[in-house]
Design a protein that fits this description.
Radius of gyration: 19 Å
Number of helices: 9
Order of helices and strands: HHHHHHHHH
Number of domains: 1
Distance between the termini: 66 Å
């Protein structure tokens, strides 16, 4: 009887888990639109006009990307809460879901920063963001199911840890947040660093 109850709880948690992951996935894919729009702003000389103001580079860029982070997070959290109420998802954890969504928004924003720094073509920038999102989602989902397979090469397990979805899933599956949060922050810092730039340099390129 106990085993049956546990299995039912695991199965019912799958709906909650997939809802969260799909929201994070579509947020990351949606980052391709934001990346493309930022590059268009540069091409249309809109960013060039902003450097004529008294605001510093970090103020202009900071407000742009922080706005992106907050808007993505708030809209996605709203969608999650609405879906939770409408679909009546069992075993849902709204505070945990909000945390995961904002962590995903942080990663997505850092991807946008890196892509807009290194890729100048709108189509290529959007495509790169989409490909990264699909690859990260695939590795995260596959990595979480490795225990179900026999004789899986260790290298595959190691590769899956580079996906932010692997760590988002770990929060859902284990309830532990400290290590996943630290790793996702490190991933985001790495991408922010790779995409760090001064606005004047970005506009002139």
């Amino acid at each position: 009887t106990t085993a049956v109850i546990v299995d039912e709880e695991v199965d019912s948690k799958e709906d909650y888990k997939m809802t969260i992951l799909l929201i994070c996935y579509f947020m990351m894919i949606g980052g391709s639109v934001i990346a493309g729009e930022i590059i268009k702003l540069r091409e249309q000389k809109v960013l060039k006009r902003t450097i004529a103001t008294s605001n510093s580079d970090i103020t202009i860029l900071g407000s742009l990307f922080i706005s992106s982070f907050i808007i993505q997070g708030v809209l996605s959290c709203s969608a999650f809460i609405i879906l939770t109420l409408v679909l009546k998802l069992p075993n849902n954890n709204i505070p945990q879901g909000i945390l995961i969504i904002f962590l995903s928004s942080l990663v997505t924003t850092s991807i946008i920063v890196a892509v807009t720094r290194w890729i100048r073509n709108v189509t290529l920038a959007s495509l790169s963001t989409v490909v990264f999102g699909i690859a990260a989602f695939g590795m995260g989902i596959f990595g979480s199911e490795l225990d179900s397979f026999d004789n899986v090469p260790e290298i595959i397990s190691r590769i899956s840890v580079i996906s932010p979805f692997t760590w988002l899933l770990r929060i859902i599956n284990t309830g532990k947040i400290i290590i996943p949060i630290l790793i996702i922050f490190l991933m985001s810092i790495m991408l922010f660093t790779a995409g760090s730039f001064r606005l004047r340099e970005f506009v002139k390129e």
